[in-house]
User: Fold these one by one.
Assistant:
Number 1:
Amino acid sequence: MGRKLKWVLGGLVLVVLAVVGAGYFLFAPPDMPITVDDPGEGGERVVLNDRPANFFPAPGAGPHPAIILLGGSEGGLQEGINARARLLQAEGYSVLYPGYYRTSEATKTFDMVPLETFDAALRYLQAREDIDTDRIGLVGGSKGAEGALLFASMRPEIRAVVASMPSSVVWQGFDWSATDFSQFSSSWSIEGTPVAYLPYDMPEWWEWFTGMTIAGMYEQSLAGLDGHADAAIAVEKVAGPVLLICGEQDQLWPSCPMARQLEARSRERGGPQVEVLAYPGAGHAVAGAPREETDENFEELASMGGSAVANNEARKDNWPKTLAFLRQHLGAGEAAH
């Protein structure tokens, strides 16, 4: 079978799985809306280069520690991430949440996403008199964790990183509605040049019907890393400590194996302290503030692996540990005390 036809058939199957696969998806249905939510109370809209961002300044004169908060492949600016930003703001951090992709039709593809957006976020914080520029950290989840680790490996100004459901490599780009993924280059770019990436090793079309999952596709692709060694994220170059959070039942990608790859690489190459919090019964919803079990959206925590209860119990454990990690390495603003 020709390589392009293999990609097309594999892509069609992925789209079908996105619609009917109860969370086994890499790309969302084609009609998934682009969402750019307002920051709401306590926040303000800013623009980083040509992309919107929501900024949540810590109360008081400062100078305050700051966090760049990165969402995942849902893209845009989402109220769920705004809510997380407000929780961090209440702890005394100024939080900048950039819409680095999927904020318009022109930016809806996760392909060659410019890392310059993160540079603009860093410059914005550094230019503010109410920010302590020696205490800037990154917090990201899923594709946002990939971006956070990659960017932190290039910018010593980043003093601590929390990466949930992380990737140990830079992946090939994608589009939520694509059926031919061979057209995509790297997920990330610098000055229009693709960052070295690991391409997807797409299974044969029939393998999708004999037990192959999206996480399995990622595992299969990771097996080819030796041939694309420059795609591995140089976590050893991160200037500060790193906290990684993952669920062993992650059905989107193998975040725990990748977290352990990052931890091993940093240890072997003399990099920063890397701590891995891995939860056996949790999936891709492992991180963040816990929910009340009476929440009408509680069962959504199980949509990408693990049970809702196990994901929530993991959150009850790792959310306080996340706050403690940030407090230890960035400090807490006066407003938190």
Number 2:
Amino acid sequence: EAFADSVPGDVNTGIVGVGECLTKILTEQYGYRVLHNTGQYDVETRDNAYSRALPAVEQILAENPSIQVIIDLHRDEVAEETKLVTDIQGRPTARFMFFNGLSRTRKTGPIEYLHNPYIEDNLALTLQLKLTCDQYYPGLARNIYLKSLRYNLHLSPKALLIEAGAQTNTLQEILNTMEPLANVLDTVVGG
């Protein structure tokens, strides 16, 4: 997932590099132990990316049972004229949103084969994060997005899917987002 000024073929200028930035901030500034999985599961096609990622994430969780929070970091895809940017402390900062899968549709109700025992936990967590972000960084977090599938959020009661900016943002705008995002994560999750 690349940004407006990403270098083609250089994952460090795309979402993987942004994940590395978030990892560094959470580790160095807040003292968390972070395992950053840089696997790419949607290179050829986005179809079934979550199914392809699931075995790898399950293995990571099995090998690291002390993991308490899962963050799946992405960037959104928006119309080319849409700019998801705000000013935070004098810096252009990409706006982000929390994304939740409900494992249900309006039309048919629960999607039984996509069982998720943590829907309410994950919704509560994203609501706490959104409210905290609105308190400390008004305008930075977009609305919480709800969708019918589960997006591997069934793996933990603290599983997050975060869409940081979009393809129309610059890498620097996205990187500028990681400090306030880390602060909000620490405020809510670190207590």
Number 3:
Amino acid sequence: MREALTPSVLTAHGIQLEPLALTHADGLIDASRDGALATLNFTSVPEANPADVRAYIEAALAGQHAGTMLPFAVVDAAGRVLGSTRYYEIDSSVPTLAIGYTYYRASVQRSHVNTTCKRLLLGHAFETLGMRTVYLHTSHANLRSQAAIERLGAHKDGVLRQHKRHKDGSLRDTVCYSIIDAEWPAIREKLDARLAR
């Protein structure tokens, strides 16, 4: 990797990705209440209470300390926390990483927020960190997430059957996508054009 995976602030189009911290807990509670996101069985959204959100942040920071994750809070220009996202499964030997654990308050879904976040995260991964491949994984039940990933231009690699469990214990098939470094310039151009509109 060209640069160590250290917390960074990434900003564009009125959206800021800032290193996740316990100070974001109240904002994440509010974000998860907007649309009752934690009730969705196929998401990683914590329950909207202080204990669960604190545990969620602490687990993300433990992953950061171990060098396998780099979590962010998604914040708007007014300082309102919109949600969270992160790099995970970081493997510096290739180097590769995955983008996920992403959620946004319901009131900003289907806006420019997700496109902006993905543009920031993918750009930083390929252009600053020197990643060769970025992965995106989602539940077979999360059709909205699959559609959003496919709109990015990611390649659908396949499905890992009975790979994990949902919150309720049911088995989850994981739908796997990837973007490789050679594909990034065309995807970047498409994302920039979408954001310019």
Number 4:
Amino acid sequence: KAWTIGILVQPNQQWTLGVDYWDYKVESSIGAIGESVIFGDPTKYAANFVRCGMLTPEEASNLAVCKDASPNTLAYIVNTTVNLGDYKTSGLDLQAAWQSAVGDWGQFSVNYRGTYVMTYEYQLEQGGQFFDNNGNYFNGAPVARYRQVMSFGWQKAAWSTVLINRYTSSYMDQNKADQGNVVAGNNVWDLSVTWAGVKGLAITGGITNLFDRDPPFSNQDDGFQVGYDFRYANPIGRAFLLRATYSY
């Protein structure tokens, strides 16, 4: 079940302002409980733990961990998709745009898009407790409370340039008891310059991660890449790009 309501205002040819509120609810969802949840409560999820002694000799022989191991050694956990509870999320989509009139110095523009998550809650079982991922690492991943993309543009004749800012807000890390338990916001700038002096041809040169920022540190261990969260930030530092396109 989903509904949205919003307003878009264009007071003149230069300005556009808008905001949308959205609200989603998914009932009787299907998904995996999550490795960290299962290991976090081994008593409740005891049925998800498979010990070497529970396997047939043939099954145990195919698992290195069970060779010459005690019957109580953990062989694996069962984390397949199951019937879960409900999901609830709501938030705001924000937008703003401005462009100047064409003048002797060319035309300037600013564009902004942002999303603010107000709630993100879900149940791991029907009628169970609601867990909150909003701004908080839980069950394998965080949900960033705020994200934005902002661009500053300039164009004159065949030349144009764009400076882009991509920002994602901070969140509580996976292991909250450790020092540095807040993953810092990720703030990256990109720059590109384009020449389109021939009809149909456009040549673009640019720099991504202009200030060579490292991804913010995270102590998460759910992914194979550690030291940062690869779903939240890109480990590639400053990089250069060159692109040519021709349309006919």
